[in-house]
Amino acid sequence: MKWLGLAAMCVLAAGCGDNVGDSVGSSGQPAHPGEQTYNRFCLSCHAAGIAGAPKVGSPEGWAPRVAQGRDVLLQRTIDGIAPGMPARGLCRSCSDEQLADAIDYMLSRSQ
User: Fold this and answer.
1) Is 46 in a helix, a strand, or coil?
2) In total, how many domains does the chain have?
3) pLDDT digit of tens for each residue in the chain (111 aa)?
4) Does 86 reside within a domain?
């Protein structure tokens, strides 16, 4: 029941909307291609580690997932991971490429 409540919090805290486009970083340079997707749809769970989500910035949290390979990470993102991560990480409008970019963004900040 506790996991269900945490998953519900992720759903409620996730970004809304269908536009996921390019963004510009604070330096005025193009941001990482996955940064905006992460900020809108992934941050609410991955920044705090809600429902077992590996925290961005935690190499230890990501190590077992990285060991499985990037293709497995992407497929599990697409399919969802019970009990806490919904399919496509709540971004039904994201392409597989946008999801892969978000994964790359989180990994780049976590190794």
Assistant:
1) helix
2) 1
3) 444 344 444 444 444 444 444 455 556 666 899 999 999 999 999 999 999 999 999 999 999 999 999 999 999 999 999 988 999 998 999 999 999 999 999 999 998
4) yes
DSSP H helical ranges for 52-95:
59-68, 70-79
Amino acid present at 101: D
Residue 92 belongs to domain spanning: 2-13+33-108
Nearest to 88 by CA among 4, 15, 2: 15
Q: Tell me whether residue 45 is in a domain.
A: yes
CATH code for the domain in which residue 51 is found = 1.10.760.10
| pTM of the predicted structure, to 2 decimals | 0.75
